[in-house]
Amino acid sequence: MASYLFDVDEDGASQPAEQSLDFPTSQAACSEAVRALSEIMAETLLSDGPSRYLAITVRDGVGAAIFRATLRYDAQVLGSQLTGTERD
Amino acid sequence: MREPIQPLVAALSVRDDLSGEEVRALHDLPIHLRNFKRGEEIVGDHTRPGRSSLVIEGTCGRVVQAREGRQITAVHVPGDFVDLHSLLLKVMDHSVVALSDCVVGSVPHGHVASLCERHPHLGRLLWLSTVIDGAIQRSTIANIGRRSALQRLAHLVCELHTRLGVIGLASPNGFSCSFTQTDLGDILGLSAVHVNRTIRDLRARNLLSWSGNQVLFSSFETLAAFADFDPTYLNLHKEPR
């Protein structure tokens, strides 16, 4: 097992990892980042407005970045039936 | 250490009155105590245990190992029999793992069966405990299947606080819990990174803080309302069973 840090960037607001997580391989740590990226994006899509940018950077035990995954979401209301998106 | 059987007596007594004779019968069970380190397996998958394990100190989890990862399907606290099921199921379809350093007492199945025959009311209460295990599983499925990550974690905290309170291990505004963020992810069906973000978000909303082993909140009622926590499934009222 080795320790990895996961920094989350949400819409430009960077949240450096507060604590490390252990994974058996760097591949497993990168898969965790991808899984977390999709989970967090899915969870916040409906509540956080029509545009979202999310990035997770994985750093190894000495703090060197080894992997970054990003997702960008944009929604637009089309047609005349709706007047806008509503926030929860 | 307090009497090993005391947490079980406390957990059963919340749901019904026990006679002095029933309490003595529980105290007379031959309990073999063992210490487990965090992460150690207490009961193996596909084994035939021959004994049922009672949590005396610490927390344990029932674990189903999927190819894609570990799912902790249930959490057990002191006073819970973690594999009373094996008395009837015989072969384990999951494993039981120590989620903290813990003390577990094991009781030979023959003695559990004999206790139920000599004291049918105690037998029904042990049956009730497995029925409540099932109720907790229903609640867990709804929690994982339908609630947001924030609500899932808040709901788990409400449940643990309530269950630990039954055996005197919770304070009004929190409790100690040694789960790692990886454990929490495996309980809640979330990645550990998402759990980390969720803890941070709950703290930012002033709903709870989880720092090291300490879980604290300023208002259980506020947290319970946020989590949609209704303790009916824990069956915490006393009535003849």
Structural features, described:
The complex is a heterodimer of chains A (88) and B (241). By secondary structure, chain A is α+β, with helices and mostly antiparallel strands. Chain A has one domain (2-74). Chain A contains one helix and five strands, in the order E-E-E-H-E-E. Chain A has one helix at 26-44; strands at 2-10, 13-15, 21-23, 51-59, 65-74. In chain A, strands 1, 2, 3, 4 and 5 form a five-stranded antiparallel beta sheet that branches. In chain A, a hairpin with a 5-residue loop joins strand 4 (51-59) and strand 5 (65-74). Chain A starts with a strand and ends in a 14-residue tail after the last strand. The model of chain B has no long low-confidence stretch (mean pLDDT 94). In chain B, helix 6 (149-166) packs across helix 8 (192-204). In chain B, the strands form three sheets. A four-stranded antiparallel beta sheet of chain B has the order 2-6-4-5. Chain B has a four-stranded antiparallel beta sheet with strand order 8-9-11-10. Chain B has two domains: 6-140, Jelly Rolls; 148-234, Orthogonal Bundle (Arc Repressor Mutant, subunit A). Helix content of chain B is 43%, strand content 22%. By secondary structure, chain B is an alpha+beta fold. Chain B has helices at residues 6-13, 20-27, 86-89, 109-118, 120-146, 149-166, 181-188, 192-204, 220-227; strands at 32-36, 41-43, 51-57, 60-66, 69-76, 95-98, 102-108, 170-171, 174-176, 209-211, 214-216. The A-B interface holds A 6, 8, 15, 17-19, 21-22, 32-33, 35-36, 39-40, 43, 56 and B 148-149, 181-182, 190-194, 196-197, 200.
